[in-house]
Automatic annotation (TrEMBL):
Name this protein carries in UniProt: Glycosyltransferase
Domain of life, per lineage: Bacteria
A Pfam family matched in the record: ATPgrasp_TupA
Amino acid sequence: MITKIKLMLRKIFLRNSTKEFYKKLRCLKIYLMSKLKDETYVKFNVRLNTGIKLNLNNPKMHIEKINWLKLNYRNPLQTEYTDKYKMRKHLINKGYSNILPSLIGVYKSFDEINFDQLPNKVFLKTNHTSGINQAIISGKTNMSKVKEKFEKALVKNYYDISREWNYKNIEPRIIVEPFLDMDKYVDYKFFVFNGKVEFFAIIKGINDDNGNQSLDSQFNLYDVNLNPLQVGVKRKSFDDKHFNFSNNIDEMIVISEDLANPFPFCRVDFLVCNQEYFFGEMTFHPNGGEMVLHPMYNEYYYGDKIKLENISDGFIKRK
């Protein structure tokens, strides 16, 4: 019942006109829950947002294992790969510099950025959070609002919001990259289980005109043979009758499996336009660990593919 009420309120308020009010309510909830231990916090949030009561003592479902990993898996490489700035060095060392967006600059504070010396259009994002992005267009963008947005983000630890350990020790930075026309790009997200891509998502309309995550994005899932996956995640889908898949899917799968090989599970994202593609980011707990694969038998099917028993004891959090 509580979950249905939460979803109803989210549907009502998570619109452009009332989005800021929804964010304030969310911040209030996070503050009130700030003293909870990680496991209690995670269990409550998952129950509130999905209706699922997690069994973390004997996890079987996909969502249970993802949250078990969130609370117990401690591979230091996760922090490096989550940091959108430090990840660039790993990609270069692996020979993937060709799929990196150009780097215009990286800054510790918003005031360090001299926009007069930058191109008329640039894209800003933080290295230590999820969803803090902004397209900057000279003479059109409200810079005071952008400054407020990024200054708030720089003093926040995303771990406090999601309880994802891999975000906890990232040193905050603002990354400036070239502006990309997001009307021309779609997002490919590859879900890698024990070093093997099992399925991938294609998302259209990723960002709005300001570069922020769009509330109207459309999300389809496919297996590696490009067949629609008989799995739903309660997201809007798009009609793919005339959709042309990238010719680089096989390359992206190889890269995803290479990057994800050290981990029991992760998601590797790319921005794709025609025959061009760029690395986006790596995510270890999609939707903060609250993505549910419907119908529910898929939760058990894909949960079985995450082999927790194969994790080295050295990467398990000590009780």
